[in-house]
Specification:
Blueprint (H helix, E strand, L loop, with lengths): L13 E2 L6 E3 L7 H10 L2 H8 L3 H13 L7 H22 L11 H19 L15 H19 L4 H12 L10 H4 L7 H8 L1 H12 L4 H8 L21 H15 L11 H10 L7 H10 L8 E4 L4 E6 L9 E4 L2 E4 L9 E5 L4 E14 L5 E9 L2 E6 L9 E7 L6 E13 L5 E10 L1 H12 L6 E2 L1
């Protein structure tokens, strides 16, 4: 922190706090006697502000650095959450087809994994200042990532509102399971890139009722979690669905989940549109506070999940990439950023620069490679392809011979480099497009992998870490 020193010159008049009496005029050069008198009168900070125009900013940055936690992504928690989401998906699909023998049919086997996951996410939130929220938001396949994000943000908002432990866990479970019914919507509808037809829209909206019916059969969910799920698409003014309830008929937990659900959807890439800039999404929710959204819940979003978290990267007008180093409640949309050695307070930037977009990092390790593989779509024949990009969570493949569509089940087989071991990975196609050569490029989200393959792939992926954590 800056300190007074002999030879410093006052850039402004030094005034006595309270009555404004002039103590020293601008232009005074400090000597040891002046510094002693300033210290004795207790106007040290006022003098520092006269010497250093950026004193307040430096002081705020020092305080932010003192409270900043390690921003490294919690990879183990992410993997735990993803495995739970795969079990939830499997359970929902089995219930939809009324499978009489499926072990997840009654949901009892999911009770402990879900409660442990929600408890672990809450514990992670509590280890850091909620305004500095960055670690847990997942950028992965939307079907899996969205429920995890809604769960996390709902609880972070509850923490900002000083909710007790039990209420936080209830809203976390409700947020995690809010879209369980979406797993019963046909993939062709769920991943459709264009506008939905009327019947398709009706199919999507039915996910709330279907999910509610499934969760009632679980038998272990408490009413608050169940209603948080059932009402997360309702709105405070009665304009939501499935029942059009409003106001006091919507629970406190549901009010947080609906805000978290909308915010995460807006800032995520989905099949029918690119993600919105997070400041824009924040403002939209703020503008609708008191009408569609509960005002307290909307305010909690700003306290818990700021649009530009500490250590996140953004782009400002002019195309420069910056890191956010200070966020304050009074200037959520204009944080202090750093470009190289330059520190810029966007709230008072003389050049009027502003944030134009977030730079999103997908927080999982991946490896770029060229690896011959075979793959089978649904129950078809084996086809030749090439793995271009590999992580524990999925891969990118170039293939020929058959059209691949989002939602297809797929099995990929390849020999691990430097070994005679065969990896067999089951997954789901999450995007597909033709390349310039006429081949198909498609992304696969891993749904099943043998434990041995998991360890071998991790070793392969981590063997060349310059690729690092990438998008």
């Amino acid at each position: 922190m800056r300190s007074l020193a002999k030879g410093d010159a006052l850039l402004y008049d030094l005034l006595m706090p309270g009555d404004g009496q002039l103590l020293l005029p601008a232009g005074t050069v400090l000597d040891d006697d002046y510094i002693f008198k300033i210290l004795k009168m207790g106007v040290w900070e006022e003098a520092l502000r006269c010497v250093d125009p950026d004193y307040d900013l430096h002081k705020r940055l020092e305080a932010a650095a003192a409270r900043r936690k390690d921003p490294l992504f919690d990879y183990a928690l992410f993997q735990e959450a993803r495995l739970v989401m795969l079990k939830i998906e499997e359970c929902a699909k089995a219930w939809a087809r009324r499978d009489p023998v499926f072990e997840f049919r009654d949901g009892r086997i999911l009770r402990q994994p879900i409660k442990e996951l929600v408890h672990n996410i809450l514990a992670r939130i509590r280890t850091r200042n909620v305004v500095d929220y960055i670690d847990l938001r997942v950028h992965d396949v939307y079907d899996f990532a969205h429920p995890i994000n809604v769960c996390t943000m709902s609880m972070a908002m509850g923490v900002a509102l000083d909710w007790g432990e039990e209420d936080l866990l209830l809203v976390g479970v409700g947020g995690l399971l809010a879209d369980i019914g979406m797993f019963m919507v046909p993939p062709a509808v769920r991943h459709k890139p264009g506008r939905l037809e009327v019947e398709e829209e009706r199919e999507v909206r039915a996910h709330v009722v279907r999910g509610y019916e499934l969760l009632k059969e679980f038998g272990w969910l408490k009413a608050a979690s169940l209603m948080a799920m059932y009402h997360h698409h309702e709105r405070m003014d009665g304009s939501g669905y499935p029942r059009g309830v409003k106001g006091s008929n919507i629970s406190e937990q549901a009010r947080l989940v609906m805000v978290a659900d909308v915010y995460d959807a807006m800032i995520s890439d989905v099949p029918y549109r690119r993600r919105n800039e997070s400041g824009l999404a924040h403002r939209m929710i703020t503008n609708l506070a008191g009408t569609q959204f509960d005002a307290t819940a909307a305010a909690a979003l700003g306290k818990a999940v700021g649009p530009y978290p500490l250590s996140s990267k953004v782009q400002v007008t002019g195309g420069q990439e910056c890191m956010v180093i200070l966020v304050e409640p009074s200037s959520l949309y204009k944080p202090v950023v750093q470009i190289g050695e330059e520190i810029i307070d966007l709230a008072g930037d003389p050049r009027g620069r502003r944030i134009v977009q977030n730079i999103v990092t997908r927080r999982f390790y991946r490896q770029k490679l060229t690896l011959a593989c075979e793959y089978m779509v649904e129950t078809g024949n084996r086809l030749d392809g090439t793995v271009l990009d590999l992580s524990l969570n999925g891969m990118c493949i170039r293939g020929r011979g058959v059209r691949v569509s989002a939602g297809n089940a797929i099995e990929v087989i390849f020999i691990l480099p430097g070994t005679a071991n065969t990896a067999r990975i089951k997954g789901k196609v999450v995007w597909a497009k033709p390349d310039t050569t006429g081949a198909m490029l498609f992304g696969v989200a891993t749904t099943e992998m043998h434990a041995t393959n998991h360890d071998q792939l991790l070793k392969l992926i981590m063997s060349s870490m310059p690729t690092g954590v990438d998008s």
